[in-house]
Structures are given as structure tokens and as C-alpha cells.
Automatic annotation (TrEMBL), chain A:
GO terms for molecular function: ABC-type transporter activity. It comes from the Bacteria. One of its GO terms (cellular component) is plasma membrane. It comes from Leekyejoonella antrihumi. PANTHER family: INTEGRAL MEMBRANE PROTEIN-RELATED, MEMBRANE PROTEIN. This is DUF1349 domain-containing protein. Keywords: Membrane, Transmembrane, Transmembrane helix. It holds the Pfam family ABC2_membrane_2. Residues 1-21 are annotated as: Disordered. The keyword Cell division does not apply.
């Protein structure tokens, strides 16, 4: 331990040196203490290795397969298209379309919109044999323009929905609401979609003569010839419980009016409704036309992809257990960093060298936080690609994650470890005994993670509260599954969604650590060493 | 120590030499354990944490009584407190041996009692006795709490569930098994702590061994998950608490406790060997 000056050489009433000098010296002293204990350094490396190793074990235990019959499965996953922004999307619908060359407009009145919901067993492929009448909230029927019917391509659409009124939507994630309510015979709905160069504009009307603009967007790089037509789609609904049920929507359109140049006639197509597509659909799509009236039946969704429907995961999900193991090791080291001093009486020397006890605790906290952060970041940076590789090898679908998310998960792992380490250090300073401090540290910082999904069950309300209010809330920083307001999906803990935002969750953990640190500082000042 | 009287006969010399050593060791360990200020607190804490956890879980349980609601296991629910109470017993077991290493007392102990395995056995006997007492009280408290509180959680006779009662054979097995479970956990931990010798590391390793395999099992899929739950000390041992047949049960009650007994035996054997061959 190196200290710049001994307090004994100074007059008793002037033991306070300049604060920054004392702080630097204390920091250096604590760093030397930490790095000279070989067991702790070995422990830190072990924490990192365990984290990486268990991430691989967990990821390697996940298999995804496509089954074409009983027991006839091959490793792999259904096709999940990516949208123009690189995000995973659903793109399944029934389309009645014709080419549009240059500018043009398509107008139609919605005559009726009805639907059915699958009621058969959840473990069978949905069929129209078992259904009840009912319309999914995000069932969409209307006019859609796209440069290509390839799944995941750019588009703009004006549509009527089951319960969200008229919507102008484009490129899966964007939406502008129009008239609310559903159309009835007394309150009909007209829809219109117009292309002018690269700009697509959606209108609605309740009389077919006065039009109101709902939304407009520019689809960059739109070719001269695009597809424009009527579509119908209807997503999985969760009205009847946690297991989703596939649905189907049927719409009749009247007064179909097309202005613009076209190369060929109308064709009907089912997009993304083949068995290789991931999105569950109900029945086959169909199209019937008589004069200006068209009836379209479709199933699927045009929206961002969410969690279990794609059967996939994220590499950061496999990371969780490794992080918990690393937490246990870090808790043992961090508590020992101060209880060891109490056991050997070294704390008296430490406090004699730096009489500002708060500075001593702060220096220790800074040192342990820095090493724990480093271990967390390095381990995660190694574990995520390894987990990704193992998951991919086993045929699992992995949601595309943005660089921002990857950075958030990596830095988040470091912060979770650092905040837990400081909290454990504070518990060590409060309890002063290794056994009590390690037990308390594990009960406060690790056990909520076990209780949550394990004992209470992921569906239990108590588990949700644990992930909101206990230190386990910080694990929300590892949440990498996409959410969307355009999908009616139970974004619950059981489905892999944390009930609190990433940074808010870290703040909960930080609050526990801050409380422990405040109590530790108070007791350290108040008690004899 | 009345065996000392009478002329020693050749074939009993070995037994007579051993017996005083044995009872002296048990008494010495008892004195050490009894005078450790934390012992009383930890035993009381075990009971309080176990019964308290059961009470909290029972208060937080609201079972829906629909026809498709999953059948609950009131006895297992009442004994949930053991999940947490075992942590305190584990700490007691760690302190039984690691405090001696921390203070250097172990050298005196082993000088006074050179038969090292006898020291370990004496510690095991005392720990077993204390855990038995704490376990009996805790399990009785849990069952009482369950009997009083679970009818309020939708698990009463009105909902088609029997009251938690020891007259029920399966419940008696679960209760006795839970006490045995705590004893076996204490012995398992004693062995690990003797091998590790450091308090903080022992507590960390022991709690990780108890609590992390169930968490890992949640994270992986079958058959790895099944095997993990069959061999992990906590999930296997706690199978003894199950009183209703459930597809989630991976191992039979006594077989599960047997797995834990093997863990404890293996741990104590390893500790005995290490204690003999290592310098104190």
C-alpha cells in the first residue's frame, strides 16, 4: 500500500489533506490492494470465462427445426423476410393487382369487412374447418402499392382495419391514422391511393366525392412500373388468450376505379402464405371479381415481426445465464475486497492512512466497479458472437439487431456487473463479515433472477413485479426483441419482453446500489473500525 | 466415558481408544458451534426465513379455479420456504468449518485431535443435530402456515383441495423429506466448505451450486433440461416435496433425495480425503 503521506506526521486538527490528493492516493492504494491478491484476479478471469462458456452451452442447447411430418424434422427455420430498414417483418397477404406505369390512382369503396378466427387445437396447422366469426384488430384491407411483390419490399398502403380505423401505412413500421371507427352501410368508407413520381399519397372519404389526405410518403428509387391493387390480410390474434389464433379477413370492394397507364390486366396473388413462410396464416387466399366489385379473402400480416411467432431468439438471451454466474463470482470478490480487511484488521491501517472514510469507500467502489465493468464488457463482446454462431449452426432464427442494440447489450453487461459489484462491496462494508455479505449479496442481486421465471413462473404477476422493482430489473438491458405498436401482441415477460425499459431497469439496480452505498458510508463513519 | 472402567480386554482396545476420542471430538465441536454467536441467529433465521417465505408466497398466490386451471400442489406450495431457508443452513454449515480456517483455530483443533476424519465426522454430527431441530420447526411452521393461509388463496376444501395435513401419507413424506433435505444440504455444504476453506468463496460456490442449475435448466431445452433437473442437488432433492403427479416432475421423490444423498456423501468423502492429505 502506497500513501503519499502519513497522517501521524500532521497536526491532529489538520489531518485533512487536499481532497483530490487524498482521493488519488486512496484510489492508488486500493488498486494496488486489489491487483496484488492473486485469487481475485483469477476469480475475475474465471467470471469472464464462465460467462462466455455458459453462453455457448445455453446457445448450443437451442435447436430449431422444420417438421414436414411426424418426427420428420430438419434443422433450420422458416423464412422471415427483412424490411427496407433491415428489420424482421411479416409480409403475407392476398393481393389483387395490376401494373401501373408512371403516375396513377386507384380508388375503391369498402362494401364489407368480416373475418373468422381459428378455434381448433393450437398444436395443429390452422385450417378453416374450426373457426368462429370475428375480426382481428389489425386485420387490414385496402389499396397497396409496391415496386415488387418480393417479401420485405418497400410499399405504401391505405387500408381499413378491424378496430384501428383507416390507416395509411408504409414500409412496415410507419403509420398515420385516418378516420376512426369501422365502415357501416350508413357510414361507408372510400379509399384512394395516388402515385406522383416517387410520392405516394393516401386519402379517405365518407361519400366518394370529398377526399381527405391521410398521409404521404416518398419511396426513394421507385421504378416507373409498380404494382398497385387491392389487398387483404389478417394477423394472429390474442383475443382468446396467451396462445395466438390465426385469423382470416374477407372484404368486398365496390366501385373500383383505376386511372393511369397499365401494361396488362389484373391478377390475383397470395404473397407469403406458403408453408415455408413463418407467419401463421389461416386458409388459402382467394379473389373473386364481378364487374367493379371484388371480394378478397386473405390472412397474414404486413408489419414488424415479433418474438415467438418467428420462433427465433437473440444471442443476448443466451447470455443471461452466463451473466448470472459472473454476478456470483463478482459478488464474492467485491465483498471480500472489504470483509478481508476487517478479518485481518487491515481496515484500521487503511483508515489511519486515509482518515476520510467516505474517500476510502469511494476509492474501493471505483476500483471494483472498473474491474467488474471491464470483465462484463469483454466477456459479453466475446460471448455474443459465440452464442450467435452456436444458435445459427443449430438452425435457429436470430432477429437482426442494430449496432445500437449490440452496443447497449455489451455496455449494459458491464454496467450490471459494475453496479452489482459496488452493491456487494457496500453490503460487505455494512455486514463486515464474509459469510453474511456474500449471502446477502446473492439473495439481493441474484435470487430475484431465479425466483422470477423459475419459482413463480414467467406468467405470474409477481414475476413481472420482480423484473420491475428488484435488481433483476436491470436485465431489461439485455432485451433485444423488437416491439411494435402496429402489432397486437402480448409483450409480456413470458414472451421474452421485459416490463421496464432498458435504462430505467439499470436505474432500478443503481438505486439499490446507491441505497446500500449510502448506508455503508453512514455506518463506516459512525462505527469504530 | 464410563467405558474406561474395568480392565481393558485385548479385542476392545481399539474401540475403547476410539470412543473417548470420538465423544470428546463431538463435545469439542459442539462447544465451538454452540458458542459461535452466529449459530443461534442462523438457526432462528432459518426458521424465520423459511416460514416467512412460505407466508409471502401463500399471500401472493391467487389460484384461478376454472375447469382448465392447472392442478396445484398445496403441500409443495406450503414448503416453498425451504428454497430460501436452505441458504441460511448453508451459511451455518460453511461457518462451522471456515471460521476455524479464518482464525487459524483449525491448527489447534487438529493438534488436539490428530484423527482428522473424526473431526469432520464430529462436525457433521453436530451440524446434523442442529439442522434437524431447525428443520423440524421450520417445516412444521410451513405446514401450519399453508394450512391456515392456502384456503384463502383459492386452494381450500371449497376448491377441491384437501387441507395440508400430516395425516396425508404423501404430505408426511414431503415434510419428513424436507427435513432430511435440509440435513443433506448441510452435509453437502460442510464437505464443500472443508475442501474450499475460505468463507466467501465457499458461500459463493455453495449458493451457485444450489440456485444456478435450476436457472440454467430454464434456459436450455430438453433433454439437457431434464438431465440437469435430475442431477442438480436442489431440483433433485426437492422432488421429495411433490405430492401430486405432474408431467413436470423429472424424478421420483425418494430417488431425488437419493441423488442429493449421493452429492452429500461424495462431498464429505472428498472433504475427508483432502483434510487428511493437505496441510492445515
Amino acid at each position: 500500500m502506497r500513501v503519499t503521506s502519513s497522517p501521524a506526521r500532521q497536526p491532529a486538527n489538520r489531518t485533512r489533506r487536499p481532497a483530490h490528493g487524498a482521493a488519488t492516493a486512496a484510489l492508488r492504494a486500493e488498486w494496488v490492494k486489489f491487483r496484488t491478491v492473486r485469487g481475485w484476479l483469477i476469480g475475475l478471469v474465471l467470471a469472464g470465462l464462465l460467462c462466455v462458456g455458459f453462453t455457448f452451452v445455453v446457445a448450443n442447447g437451442h435447436h430449431q427445426g422444420i417438421c414436414t411430418g411426424a418426427g420428420n424434422c430438419t434443422a433450420g427455420h422458416p423464412f422471415v423476410p427483412n424490411g427496407p430498414g433491415g428489420e424482421a417483418v411479416a409480409d403475407s397477404y392476398q393481393y389483387y393487382t395490376q401494373p401501373l406505369i408512371g403516375d396513377g390512382t386507384l380508388t375503391a369503396r369498402i362494401g364489407s369487412l368480416t373475418g373468422v378466427i381459428y378455434t381448433g387445437p393450437a398444436n395443429q396447422a390452422p385450417s378453416t374447418a374450426h373457426t368462429r366469426a370475428g375480426l382481428a384488430g389489425w386485420a387490414k384491407v385496402g389499396i397497396l402499392l409496391t415496386p415488387s411483390t418480393r417479401q420485405g419490399s418497400a410499399y405504401a398502403a391505405i387500408c381499413a382495419t378491424g378496430s384501428h380505423g383507416i390507416q395509411f401505412q408504409h414500409n412496415y413500421t410507419r403509420d398515420q391514422p385516418g378516420r376512426s371507427g369501422t365502415q357501416t352501410s350508413s357510414s361507408p368508407r372510400w379509399l384512394r391511393l395516388t402515385r406522383t413520381a416517387e410520392t405516394i399519397t393516401g386519402y379517405d372519404s365518407d361519400n366518394g366525392t370529398t377526399w381527405r389526405q391521410i398521409g404521404t410518403t416518398r419511396l426513394a428509387g421507385l421504378p416507373a412500373t409498380v404494382d398497385i391493387g387491392l389487398f387483404a390480410t389478417s394477423p394472429v390474434t390474442y383475443q382468446d388468450g396467451a396462445t395466438g389464433a390465426a385469423t382470416q379477413a374477407t372484404a368486398t370492394f365496390n366501385d373500383l376505379t383505376f386511372t393511369g397507364r397499365t401494361a396488362s390486366g389484373w391478377t390475383a396473388r397470395s404473397i407469403g402464405m406458403s408453408p415455408r413462410d413463418y407467419y401463421p396464416t389461416l386458409g388459402a387466399g382467394s379473389t373473386h371479381r364481378s364487374g367493379a366489385n371484388v371480394t378478397i379473402t386473405g390472412s397474414g400480416d404486413i408489419a414488424p415481426a415479433v418474438a415467438t411467432l418467428a420462433g427465433g431468439s437473440t444471442a443476448s438471451e443466451s447470455l443471461l445465464f452466463g451473466i448470472v454466474v459472473a454476478l456470483v463470482v463478482v459478488i464474492v470478490i467485491a465483498t471480500g475486497f472489504i470483509t478481508g480487511e476487517y478479518r485481518r484488521g487491515l481496515i484500521r491501517t487503511t483508515l489511519a492512512a486515509t482518515p476520510q472514510r467516505g474517500v476510502v469507500l469511494a476509492a474501493k467502489a471505483l476500483v471494483i466497479a472498473a474491474v467488474a465493468f471491464t470483465v462484463g464488457v469483454v466477456a459479453t463482446a466475446l460471448a455474443i458472437p459465440l452464442g450467435h454462431h452456436a444458435l445459427t449452426t443449430n438452425g435457429n432464427y436470430i432477429f437482426p439487431t442494430s449496432t445500437t442494440t449490440q452496443v447497449r447489450v455489451t455496455v449494459g453487461a458491464g454496467l450490471v456487473l459494475a453496479l452489482t459489484a459496488v452493491g456487494a462491496l457496500a453490503l460487505g462494508a455494512i455486514l463486515r463479515r464474509a459469510a453474511g455479505a456474500v449471502t446477502a449479496g446473492i439473495i439481493v442481486y441474484v435470487l430475484p433472477n431465479l425466483l422470477g421465471p423459475g419459482v413463480l413462473g414467467p406468467g405470474a404477476p409477481a414475476a413481472t413485479w420482480l423484473y420491475r422493482a428488484s435488481p433483476a430489473a436491470a436485465f431489461s438491458v439485455f432485451g433485444a426483441l423488437p416491439r411494435s405498436a402496429l402489432v397486437s401482441y402480448p409483450f409480456t415477460l413470458a414472451n421474452g419482453y421485459y416490463p421496464i425499459g432498458s435504462w430505467a431497469g439499470l436505474a432500478v439496480l443503481a438505486a439499490y446500489t446507491a441505497a446500500a452505498l449510502a448506508l455503508a458510508t453512514y455506518l463506516l463513519h459512525r462505527r469504530d473500525a | 466415558m464410563s467405558t474406561q472402567t474395568g480392565p481393558p480386554r485385548p479385542h476392545t482396545v481399539l474401540r475403547d481408544e476410539l470412543r473417548p476420542a470420538w465423544s470428546a471430538a463431538v463435545r469439542a465441536e459442539w462447544t465451538k458451534l454452540r458458542t459461535l454467536p452466529s449459530t443461534t441467529w442462523l438457526l432462528a433465521g432459518t426458521v424465520a426465513v423459511t416460514v416467512g417465505t412460505t407466508a409471502i408466497i401463500a399471500a401472493a398466490t391467487h389460484t384461478s379455479t376454472g375447469p382448465d386451471a392447472a392442478r396445484q400442489d398445496p403441500t409443495k406450495l406450503a414448503l416453498t420456504g425451504i428454497d430460501l431457508g436452505q441458504a441460511i443452513i448453508a451459511v451455518l454449515a460453511v461457518l462451522t468449518v471456515c471460521e476455524e480456517y479464518g482464525a487459524g483455530m483449525i491448527r489447534i483443533t487438529l493438534t488436539a485431535m490428530p484423527r482428522r476424519t473424526v473431526v469432520l465426522a464430529a462436525k457433521a454430527v453436530n451440524l446434523t443435530g442442529l439442522t434437524l431441530i431447525a428443520g423440524l420447526v421450520a417445516v412444521a411452521g410451513c405446514l401450519m402456515t399453508g394450512r391456515l393461509m392456502l384456503p384463502g388463496a383459492g386452494l381450500g376444501t371449497a376448491d377441491g383441495y384437501p387441507l395440508v395435513s400430516l395425516a396425508h401419507t404423501a404430505t408426511l413424506r414431503a415434510a419428513a423429506g424436507s427435513v432430511l433435505y435440509l440435513i443433506l444440504i448441510a452435509l453437502l455444504v460442510l464437505g464443500i466448505a472443508t475442501a474450499i476453506r475460505d468463507t466467501a468463496v465457499s458461500v459463493g460456490v455453495v449458493l451457485a451450486l444450489l440456485y444456478l442449475p435450476p436457472l440454467l435448466a430454464q434456459a436450455v431445452s430438453d433433454p439437457l433440461r431434464r438431465h440437469l433437473e435430475q442431477i442438480a442437488p436442489m431440483t433433485a432433492g426437492l422432488a421429495v416435496q411433490v405430492t401430486t403427479s405432474s408431467p413436470a416432475q423429472v424424478i421420483a421423490p425418494w430417488a431425488g433425495l437419493g441423488i442429493l444423498a449421493m452429492w452429500a456423501a461424495g462431498s464429505l468423502t472428498t472433504a475427508g480425503v483432502l483434510l487428511r492429505i493437505r496441510d492445515a
